[in-house]
Write a structure and sequence with these properties.
The chain is built from 14 helices and five strands. The radius of gyration is 21 Å and the shape is globular. The structure holds tryptophan.
């Protein structure tokens, strides 16, 4: 894989610049520690089950999870099937979407022997942590969360549910039930990580009697490159501009063929002035382990059609083994369900131990 990922701006999100540079610096230190001693880290990451995963997810987070797993870090991958209800009234075909997610995980190399895949709704003791945790944050703090505010501003719902305001605290339960100390996130999740750290700190202060029940987990900020959708907007399944891992080679070719570019024949990497062309170059570069400048130099003045041919081939070659594995796993739905059931059992055993500690610390073992 390309380790020298070019620095392009990550998706803009409401986090202030100082927090961001602190988180970046801290992440560099953490990367060194992970390499030195992966056994010290327990990672928890999560996704909302909203649909199939696409190349933005892949190069944004999935690839990094597999890297961490393969470095020997203990990994929990959480499917946030309650959180998905924050921006919709009902989650349609949830079980189908969860199965597709698990397929994507397995296809990219998440190994259920080494990583625990769970759906948070199926882990009662995790959910019970929400109540004591909610007592540790104020309504004013919940209302200040910039990511939540942003989601409310873009919500399709007619009214804002209580879950919308409290899901960051639920996310603290997602992370702390297994005492994860490392959470790979994009910048939009930094406010939630701050809530988690606040909850952990306050719980320890109030009930810990000198010993820390919970770690204060670190955000591991991914240097996720910004890949645009084929229409030049943010890559998103609902906009029909995303290349999913599950798509076949023909569909991929069709999507890339229809991608927005510009009229200049000379292909060059310049994200500021030529965002669409640059995003395509970046995508090919990520797939080929090269820099976008190198890809651009190869294409030269051959124009957008040549660029698209290069990108299509790069993406289809890169995804071929992932897609083959995906198809193989797709034959065995019972296996997919078993992975989740076993993950939930493992998570439940851990969550029950943590809840027992919490209740003991709170002097509420009745
Ligand atoms: N909030 C995350 C998102 O919207 C999903 C998520 C839920 C998560 N629980 C988590 C991420 C715990 C990291 C850790 O994408």
């Amino acid at each position: 894989m390309n380790t020298a990922v070019p620095t392009t701006p990550t998706a803009s999100a409401p986090t202030d610049a100082i927090d961001l540079s602190v988180a970046r610096a801290r992440s560099t230190v953490l990367e060194d520690r992970i390499r030195e001693d992966p056994g010290r880290f327990r990672v928890l990451t999560g996704d909302r089950p909203t649909g199939r995963l696409h190349l933005g997810h892949y190069f944004g987070t999935l690839h990094n999870r597999v890297r961490l797993q393969n470095l020997g870090v203990e990994m929990f991958v959480l499917i946030a099937d309650y959180q998905v209800l924050t921006d919709r009234d009902v989650a349609d075909n949830l079980s189908g979407i969860v199965e597709e997610l698990v397929l994507d995980y397995l296809a990219v190399g998440i190994d259920p022997e080494r990583s625990t895949i769970l759906t948070h709704s199926a882990v009662p003791a995790l959910n019970q942590l929400l109540l004591p945790f909610l007592s540790l944050v104020s309504v004013a703090e919940l209302e200040r969360n910039p990511t939540v505010k942003d989601e409310i501003a873009h919500s399709r719902q007619s009214s804002v549910s209580g879950l919308m305001f409290t899901y960051p605290v639920h996310q603290a339960a997602d992370i702390l039930f297994c005492k994860a100390n490392l959470v790979p996130v994009g910048r939009d999740q930094l406010p939630h990580l701050e809530t988690t750290r606040t909850v952990a700190r306050r719980f320890n202060d109030r009930y810990g009697a000198g010993t820390a029940v919970f770690p204060q987990p670190d955000a591991l900020l991914s240097s996720a490159p910004l890949l645009l959708g084929t229409d030049g907007g943010k890559m998103s399944k609902s906009r029909g501009n995303a290349i999913t891992l599950a798509a076949d080679a023909d569909e991929t070719a069709r999507l890339i063929k229809g991608a927005r570019t510009d009229a200049e024949r000379r292909i060059a990497y310049d994200p500021a002035t030529r965002p669409e062309v640059s995003s395509l170059l970046l995508l090919a570069a990520l797939c080929q382990g090269r820099t976008p400048e190198e890809v651009a130099a190869d294409i030269g003045s051959a124009g957008a059609a040549a660029l698209k041919r290069t990108v299509t081939e790069a993406v289809n070659d890169y995804l071929a083994p992932i897609r083959a594995r995906r198809q193989e796993y797709a034959q065995d739905r019972a296996y997919l369900r078993r992975i989740v059931r076993e993950g939930n059992e493992r998570a439940t055993a851990i969550a029950e131990r943590t809840l027992a500690e919490v209740r003991a610390a709170m002097n509420s073992l009745f």
